[in-house]
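pls ignore typos typing on phone
s-citryldethia Coenzyme A + seq
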Amino acid sequence: MADTLTIKDNRTGKTFDVKITDDTIKATDLRQIKVKDDDFGMMTYDPAFMNTASCKSSITFIDGDKGILEYRGIPIEQLAEKSTYVETAYLLLNGKLPNEKELTDWNHEITMHTILNENLKALIDAFRYDAHPMGRLISTMAALGTFYPEAKNIFDAECRQRQIVRIIAKIITIGAFNYRRGIGMPYAYPDNDFTYPGNFLNMMFKMTESKYKVSPALEHALDILFILHADHEQNCSTSTMRVIGSSQADPYSSVAGAAAALYGPLHGGANEAVIHMLRQIGSNKNIPAFIEKVKAGEGKLMGFGHRVYKNYDPRARIIKQAAYGVFEVTGKNPLLDIALELEKIALEDEYFVKRKLYPNVDFYSGLIYQALDIPMGMFTVMFAIPRVSGWLAQWQELLLDPDQKISRPRQIYTGPRQLDYIPVQNRK
Ligand code: SDX
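k done
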């Protein structure tokens, strides 16, 4: 049997054999299917890209039915247990785990680039005190790129690597500096003695003590959260990073655009929306009424459901476990009981079971961020910080992919044609 699809166009009686590769057909192979010779030719109509592969990638593998997630072939469970976020970022970007020297050099590189150009503080200071942390992050990231005009040389591997290191290293400083400015606290500068997650906590919470004292349990929990959020194949923000990157924009502008996509409540903004939802529910006795409203279509169960996972999101399972470790140090988050009961009830309810709606990465993560004293407005920043390594790995893969060119989808035009302009005095 040949690896082809035979398509019969019943409008013309013609048949076409289209090649099948990787269980897909090239959409452009459909263009030969026409009624009239001067037709544009057949296209697929796929709003939200529900069934369209936009690229070939070897970075992240997801099996939504089995709840499997692997970075460069390594199961997320093993990375969460044995790796660090900085090492995982190297894996995503380079396709392999670093050897000892590579890891030492990579850690050094990231540590040495956490400082921000002092002039960026003028922008950070300019925001209103209550500016949303994601609006701050998106703007500061785009502005950061203006300090490195060389970043436009995206096909110079060494220059590209310098920008990748800068973005990964500086995004924790951007997040922390914006937080400190928002609460009227002086900036706490990066301290090279800390690990990546430890340095972030240091810059967020150091007060007048000469040296911030990081809790190893909280530092480790944050490192696990960073690992789990680092990449997730062609999600909304990563696809945005690729679309912007396809125009050959610099990586800072591409990351700012990807972060803007992540900001949406259906995507990275869901972790913040989950806490609002749990607070709105208020107690276990209100859960049944809330579930009935969701089933009546009055809102969504935030932190539930996924375009790909039709099983439990493996990241949610790991985060739920990590939460218990955090609460041993910080005391239990009172919203946890509501979240656990909500999950239990939802997983037994036909509405959610039939639609294969399970907890996703955002359902429990906010409970940990709250326990770490991270303000709710920053929860999506906590998602963006590690996701930049995934965005950058996917962006770099796009740049080096000979199949790729500037993204420019087509459309089905449904508007009027050939109308005459009507002078304003003749309009109704
Ligand atoms: C992330 O893509 C990624 O990989 C994203 C991410 C990553 O790492 O990058 O995993 C991170 O964004 C996780 C998702 C965070 N978002 C939320 O938790 C928001 C709540 N979830 C939903 O908005 C929704 O589940 C989506 C957006 C996540 C997925 O939506 P889909 O795939 O477009 O599914 P759909 O909206 O078409 O829903 C199918 C059905 C619908 O019901 P019917 O019209 O068939 O009756 O399921 C229902 C939906 O109404 N549904 C929900 C629901 N999610 C879907 N009903 C109640 N609560 C929900 N959460």
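Residues 6 and 17 are 4 Å apart (CA to CA). The chain is about 50% helix and 5% strand. more later
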